[in-house]
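cache lookup: miss for this entity combination. No prior model stored, computing from scratch. Input as submitted by user K.M.:
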Amino acid sequence: MAQSTNAIRKRKGILGGLAIVAIVTGLGWSLLVAPPDAYQGEVQRIMYLHLPSILTAYLSYFLVFIGSGMYLWKREKKDDLLAHAAAELGVLFTALTIIEGSIWGKPTWGVWWTWDARLTLTAILLLIYAGYLMLRSSIDDEQRAASAAAILGIIGFLDIPLIHMSVYWWRTLHQPPSILRPDKAPWENVHPAMLTALAISFVGFLLLYFYLLSLRYRVGEMRQEIKALRLERGV
Amino acid sequence: MGPWGYVSLAYGIVWGVIVVYWFVLKRRYRAAETELNRLRSSEAAVSHDKN
């Protein structure tokens, strides 16, 4: 038991260490090596945070979607724990994306916020998953809370394709994608040093995400064990 | 505010929030771990007394 706990701790430590190395390298590349953008100037460097943040949030909601679907199908607690942990991190990274976008928007568009389709749909995404967390804490019956949250977790995920397509379907202030576009490969459209900064930052965010997710998942798992032990004793 | 001011603000807020969240998560982790160990050791003591 103690051996497996130590092995888990060691793995978490390695993951955390790798995340720090990638984040520091990404910061150096984003702030010192990548050139300023021809039109936006230095402010474009905020994109090295903005894009990795939203992609990490999407990954998180994908895990909520998978965990929720699996929970509704098999009723296994581990799937619900994964969905819950991923939803909390998804909310964190979506909130950061909106803050970064707002700080970039002020010098670029002249406003901190505008009711543009992509911005509004991203704010809705944040509200859906903040609601998911509130829903869980507002229902006492654990199984009912998990089932209700799983349904919301699956429905909420449908907002992501809408966010991605919003810049094509509506006239938006938000520019179309520079990386994930159907007509051009990223290296045909973006300076190699900028693409490298983006790639390293994304790897740093991913490693950090999986480190935080493993911690948050374990917190949920331990809480379950505590609840079970207390029930056993009638505490 | 100049362009580097906006860049510093964005990087400062993002990494500040992530560090605070990490600290809070670590505290939640340690609290749960301590509680679990306490319950496990008291359970072990009870079963030892029964034997």
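stored under new cache key. The two ends of chain B are 73 Å apart (CA to CA).
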